[in-house]
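This section describes the prediction task in plain terms. A model, or a person checking by hand, is given the sequence of a single protein chain and must write out its three-dimensional structure as a string of tokens. No templates, partner chains or ligands are provided. The sample shown here is typical of the held-out split.
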Amino acid sequence: MKQIVIIGNGIAGITAARHIRKQSDFKILVISSESAHFYSRTALMYVYMGHMKLEHTKPYEDWFWKKNRIDLLQDRVLAIDPDHKSLTLENHPPLSYDSLIIATGSTPQFYGWPGQELRGVQGLYSQQDLASLEQYAPHAKQCKRAVVVGGGLIGVELAEMLHSRHIPVTFLVRETHFWNGVLPQENAQLISKHILSKGIDLRTETSLQEIIGKDGKVTAVLTDQGETIPCNLVGVTTGVRPNIDFLKNSPLALDKGVLVNAYLETNLPDVYAIGDCAQQQEPMPGRRAIEAVWYTGRMMGETLAQTICGQRRPYRPGHWFNSAKFFDMEYQTYGAVPSARENTKEVSLFHWEHPDKALALSLAYHSQSEQFLGVNSFGMRLRHEMVDRWLSEKKSLSYVLVHWADANFDPEFYRSYHHEIIKAYTHKTGQQIQLQKKSWKRIFNLQSEKT
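The expected answer:
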């Protein structure tokens, strides 16, 4: 019987295992060195914040795997021998495979700072990182101050986690505003202001230079501004990189990640890569070669399962989308919205921001054709199906604004700001837009199509 071996039990690997099982009777083995069972990595912050327990992060009961004939092995893969189709393990004898799926995810990116090996210096990615956080920052009495380095989503999550336990946080961001390498300037300014309003000591245009310690444990950081900041924990959230170090002496084609084609195939026969560790050789327009996002891992797992089970299918993720929270501010993005670093004359931006509340909207469109290209939404929920349809049908910005009510996904009695958005657009461009009343019939039909 065909043996499928999956290295990594994150969302990509487990989705592949589940969908292979639905379509075949193959033997399936999942190997992980991190945890015995699959868990929701994005829920780790809520465990630390006291909203749930670690066992609550497991979407499936422990009996699920045996019942569905998915074998689990907790061990570390040291090497791949593609000539003999075998794996060398740290604590078990070598084992063979017929098809191998590499789904090893990411690992926190450190940049060789002096002192980064000290106790109390860590990333936030794994269950082991959560345990380390509990050890070095259990409460404000033991952790007098924490320093978070790096202005990404993991950084703001860690700041919120520590803040929930009343631990003072200094947040070092090298850009002029938080996340302006991803967001337009107006959005980055909004988020920076929101983070500051939560009591976080946000230091922009400030980088880490050295981590200082005593007796093997962190005691302070030195910034490039010459300031020494005493602290008991340093959270390094300067991004992640594909977890592929164990593959560097193998014949696999590697770059930043494991190189794959549109079918998620590597240069080796019967060896595939999915999730954060996979790097597309020819990414689709508007998509990056490596996308360390939960939903892309899930989509890759579903796609590859089709190929493994005899229905060869390319990975086609469609339009980019993502969502996150900055403390209590919800963020959604669809399509392509240029960041503050990008300077293109072909793309224009329309911004609307509430004068008093943490609510904002940024719409990107082609400067000449007015084709709608993407949207960033803050504090307002959008309907994925509708925005995705507008992008696919290449609707104009005027059309999007006229039909904006159809994209609103806020609860029925939430305050609507459609009139204010249209008024701001009219004031900026001089174009008169007739605001359309919400068409429940169209939304009902849209939902009917989905089901």
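For orientation: Residues 3-107+241-308 form a domain with the FAD/NAD(P)-binding domain fold (CATH 3.50.50.60).
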